[in-house]
Design brief:
By secondary structure, this protein is of the alpha/beta class. The protein folds into two domains: about 200 residues, 3-Layer(aba) Sandwich (Rossmann fold), CATH 3.40.50; about 170 residues, Glycogen Phosphorylase B (Rossmann fold). About 45% of the residues lie in helices and about 15% in strands. It is built from 16 helices and 13 strands. Strands 3-2-1-4-5-6-7 form a seven-stranded parallel β-sheet, with helices on both faces. Strands 10-9-8-11-12-13 form a six-stranded parallel β-sheet, sandwiched between helices. The two termini are about 15 Å apart.
Length: about 400
């Protein structure tokens, strides 16, 4: 059996949850040696040497695996983008694959595919909390996702919560939706043994002593302003000195976060790093005392899972998918209550034994989610489709 994998998200230079989900799953599937794989993508770059070198640097390592890489060239890619909505040119004209199943990773699928298809729908944020989603994203999903869900063979989603959301907002029958949890690489995200190996990153951002950590895009639905409010409350109540570190790229409506820090006069106690490469992010997580992630809405919740894999105690929301992911490995709080978040911050930072016990439980919970399990679940779906 042959599977064709959409490689478009591999080219994201600043990956977030959806991009990393695609990257890790593709890598794990290609390593299994069970099925044949095609890896396909549409070129965004004109055929200049520098641009082609960029593409080759990304895709080159995959060519050495057991797969065929199919590149839709620059001119054909432009034709595809201009005509895909109204001409109905067969997808095979652009991506000549003979795969039994085509796998997509970013919500929607193209038109004109004459084969079995699987797509991953990560969440229903554009329906559930439209005020926290950019208008452009809302319009794209509003126009294309219902059509995708009708046309594709299987909808994979990353949590039982998201499955219920898809059924609720799009009216899709439950038998068409398969829950395929995301994973974490336990060989990369693991408890720290020697603090010296992360010192370069701590020095780079002038971090000394204990710190609370948030990792994720700086945008409204991540509820970062509530972390800041809770941190101010923590400083009033706890004798234990600790700074707050926010890691992530600027997202939609990020200005409010910076204003909140300035208005509260805590600029000296808050470090905003911007987007971090994966290795530096991992080191920053490993060095944290407590990980704080009171997001208002998640389809899965990769950042707290990565923290738990490092044995870091987690404070997380008690809503959306996060109770599924965090389970007994963290403290679940009302994301709208700065006091609840602050209570958890004080409890963990002021109690070394509590931090150790929560970190131990966090590690045990994280071991339930691996990319090998994710890939195996996807292979089961591919097999079922090929036999139907």
């Amino acid at each position: 059996m042959k599977i064709a994998l959409d490689a478009q998200l591999l080219f994201e230079e600043q990956k977030t949850g959806v991009g990393w989900n695609a990257t890790r799953l593709i890598e794990t599937l290609l390593d299994d040696g069970i099925y044949e794989y095609d890896l396909f993508y549409f070129s965004k770059h004109c055929p200049l040497k520098k641009k082609r070198e960029f593409e080759e640097n990304i895709i080159g390592p995959y060519k050495r695996k057991k797969c065929r890489v199919i590149r839709c060239g620059f001119v054909k890619s432009i034709i595809y983008r201009l005509t895909r909505r109204w001409l109905g040119i067969p997808f095979h004209f652009f991506i000549p694959t003979d795969a039994d199943v085509l796998q997509f990773f970013n919500f929607t699928i193209p038109q004109g595919i004459d084969a079995k298809t699987v797509t991953i729908v990560h969440d229903m944020a554009y329906k559930a909390i439209p005020e926290a989603v950019p208008k452009k994203t809302q319009m794209w999903l509003q126009n294309w996702l219902p059509r995708t869900c009708r046309q594709c063979s299987v909808i994979a989603t990353v949590s039982s919560f998201s499955k219920l959301e898809i059924m609720k907002y799009l009216g899709i029958e439950k038998n068409k939706i398969e829950v395929v949890y995301s994973g974490v690489d336990m060989d990369i995200y693991r408890p720290l043994i020697d603090r010296g190996v992360i010192q370069d990153v701590l020095d780079k951002y002038h971090i000394k002593g204990k710190y609370f950590l948030y990792v994720g895009t700086l945008e409204p639905r991540k509820n970062v302003t509530k972390i800041i409010e809770a941190y101010v409350e923590y400083k009033k109540r706890s004798p234990e000195p600790a700074i707050l570190v926010l890691v992530g790229k600027k997202g939609w409506m990020y200005d409010e976060i910076f204003r909140e820090i300035q208005d509260l006069g805590i600029e000296a106690d808050v470090i905003i790093t911007g987007y971090m490469k994966d290795e530096d992010k991992r080191k920053m997580i490993q060095g944290a005392s407590v990980f704080v992630f009171p997001s208002k809405y998640e389809g899965f919740g990769t950042p707290p899972l990565e923290a738990m894999a490092c044995g870091i105690p987690v404070i997380s929301s008690n809503v959306s998918s996060l109770p599924e992911v965090v389970g007994e490995g963290g403290i679940l709080v009302n994301p709208d209550s700065a006091r609840e978040i602050a209570d958890a911050m004080v409890y963990l930072m002021d109690n070394c034994d509590a931090r150790y016990d929560m970190g131990r439980r966090a590690l045990a919970q994280a071991q339930r989610f691996t990319w090998e399990k994710t890939a195996e679940r996807m292979r089961q779906i591919y097999k079922r489709l090929s036999e139907s």
